[in-house]
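INFO batch 0412 | record 1 of 1 | parsing
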Amino acid sequence: MKEPIRGNEDKLSDILNNTYYQAVQTQLREKNKKLDAKDAPSLQQHGQEKVAPMASKPNSSGTLSQNQGDRASIRSVEWKRNQSGDFELSSPSEWPLITAVDLSGQRVTANNPAYKIELSPRIDRFKESLSQAVVQSRSSNYFVSRFGELKAGMLIRILSLLGVSPDDLKQVQQTAIKGAISQNIQSMSEAIYSSEMTEIIQGGTKKARRALRLFKATKTQLMKQMALLGDPDYWGNRRLTQEHITQLSKILDELNQEKDILTYRLDYHYTHYGHAHLLDPDTQKKMSRVGQYIQKATQQTHRRRVELRRLEGDKTKELVALGQQLLDPNANKGYEQ
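INFO prediction complete | emitting C-alpha cells
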C-alpha cells in the first residue's frame, strides 16, 4: 500500500525537529552574535562622529597645506540590523556639509569650488589657430569665410582674456595675411609652370586641353583669393605675362640641361664604338623630342615677350596721357563746362 500524503505542517515539523537542522541554526545564531558584538563599537562611533580637523600633511612641494582644519565625513548611509534581525540601509538624521575633499595634495575649497584651468602654455597654439582662421576668413567660399570669421573672433576673445595685447593680435593677423599672399604667389607660379609645360609637351591634344582648362580655373581662383587678401590689382595682365616669361625661362633651362645630358651620352657612345649606326636609338629619339620642345618653348617665350611689350606700351601711353592731363590746366575744361 502507498503511504498516505501528509500535509505541509507535518513536513515542516519534521524539518524543524531534525537534529542536523537544529545544529545548523545554533551555529548561525552564535555567528550572528559574534558579528553584532564586533560591529557594535563602530556603529556607536559613527553615531557620535563629528567633523574632525585634517591632519597636517606636507604637499608635493614640501610645505604644509593651507587648508588644515577643514575635513568632513562623506559617509552617508550604512547597513544596520533592525529589531526583527534583518539588514536594512539607514542614513544619519543630519547630513554633514562637505567643505573640502583631500585629493592627494589637491583640494577643492568652498571659496574656489572649481579647478583652475591653466591656458597660458597654449597661447602659441591659439595664435597659430588664429592665423589659420584669419586665412579662412578671406576664402572665396562664403561658408568657409563665415566660419573663419567666427573662429577668429572667438580666438581673439580668448587671447585677450589671457593677456595678449591688441598690438600682438594685430601682428598675428598681419603675419597670417603675408603668409597667405606668399602662398598665393607660389601657387600661381606652379599653375603657370604646369600650364606652359603641358602646352609644350602635349600640344593641342584633348588631354592637354582638359588640363589647360583646369589650370585656367586654378589661376582664376588664385586671382580672386588675392583680391580678398587685400590686393585686387596684383595679378594684372602685365604681372601674369611676366610670370609666364619667368616660368618659360625656367622650362628652357631645364630642357637645355636635358639636351646637354643627351649630347654627352651620344658623344660617349660614338667615341667608344666609333660607328654612327651603333648609336643608342632611344637617346636619338629623346634628343629629337627635346629639340622640338626647346623650339616650342622659344616660340612661346617670344610670343609672351611681344605681349609684354604691348602691355607696357599701353601702360606707358596711359601714364603719358595722365601726366599731360595733370600738367595741362585746361585738360578738364570741357568736363567742367
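INFO post-check: Residues 237-332 form one domain.
INFO record closed
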